[in-house]
Amino acid sequence: MFANKLLTCSALLIMLFLLSSTVFSQKLIGLPRVGKNVSDLFLEQANPLTSSSSTISTSSTTTEKPITTRSTSTITPRSTTPSTESPSTTAPVISTTIAPQPYPQPSIGAWNTSCIMLQMAAQLNFTYEAREGNFTTGLDNIPSNASVEDAECKSQTTQFIHLIWGPETSKQSLIMYFNKSNDTTVLSFMQIHLALLPEDFPDAKENQTVQLITRSDGAFKTPENMSYHCTRVQKINMTETLDAEQLIGWISVSHVQVEAFRRANDTGFSVGHDCDSSETSDVVPIAVGIALAALILVVLISYLCARRRSTSRGYMSF
């Protein structure tokens, strides 16, 4: 009898223990466990790994927040490497104008006759009429390959040399006259005949001829039996006629050496008389001497005045 009561009490205690443990576990988990009998609860309590895994899985499925993904179709990542492409800029178009080339310098030519030797480089600067009726300036060089057309060597007072160049249909010419008087030779007259060719002067009026004339008593002046020599550029003014006052051009000559009235047995230029070594007038040395004498006199007077003042001051000190 006592044993039966003991077994009954033991069974009641076991059932109470199981019920209390089930309630405790449900409170810990926070989820209702519906439809499970006592044996299942007992097995779950006996296998803690299965219980915890199921509990964690249930918790994760009920508490996990939904994951939203952001669309990257409209977001362009910024490049961190610098761009090597230069910005497309339209450069301004600069129009360049080619400057006109300067007219070539004349070359040195040499021409010889039995009585005249001539060496020079010459350029003509003249005025001519254009097609429109206005006047313009032209340049032309006397070529170094011009030939001697004629010369006068018989006279002992006037001699000339005649140069020609250009095409056969339109010859250009230069005539230079030299006079000798009082043991001095000088260029007395010069004439240039220049036909304006279309290939050289396309804007010139058709069939136009320029004639330049000059009369000078001081150009290329040199003592007798000497040659005239001048390296620097010299300008000789020229007009259209001998009596005209209007200047229509000039001839620029350089590297000149000329000798007229040469003897027949001479083989080259005589001693040169340079254009920059002209004889100095007597007025210049006289003026310089007077200036030096006046300067010496002023210095002497100043010295005497200073000495007199110093002497008078010495007496006053006593």
UniProtKB/TrEMBL annotation:
Disulfide-linked positions: 115-153
Keyword field: Cell projection, Cytoplasmic vesicle, Disulfide bond, Endosome, Glycoprotein, Membrane, Signal, Synapse, Transmembrane, Transmembrane helix
A cellular component term, taken from the record's GO annotations: endosome membrane
Family: Belongs to the LAMP family.
Sequence ranges assigned to domain Lysosome-associated membrane glycoprotein 2-like luminal in this UniProt record: 112-261
Compartment(s) where it occurs, according to its Swiss-Prot or TrEMBL record: Cell projection, Dendrite; Cell projection, Growth cone membrane; Cytoplasmic vesicle, Secretory vesicle, Synaptic vesicle membrane; Early endosome membrane
Stretches for region Disordered: 50-100
Job of this protein: Plays a role in short-term synaptic plasticity in a subset of GABAergic neurons in the brain.
Secretion signal, residue range per the UniProt entry: 1-25
Membrane topology, from the record: Single-pass type I membrane protein
Biased composition (Low complexity): 50-90
Gene that this sequence comes from: Lamp1
Entry protein name: Lysosome-associated membrane glycoprotein 5
Lineage per the UniProt record: Eukaryota, Metazoa, Ecdysozoa, Arthropoda, Hexapoda
InterPro entries: Lamp2-like_luminal, Lamp2-like_TM, Lysosome-assoc_membr_glycop
Pfam families assigned: Lamp2-like_luminal, Lamp2_2nd
Record-annotated membrane-spanning stretches: 283-306
Domain Lysosome-associated membrane glycoprotein 2-like transmembrane span(s) in chain numbering: 284-311
Keyword Signal: yes
Highest taxon, organism lineage: Eukaryota
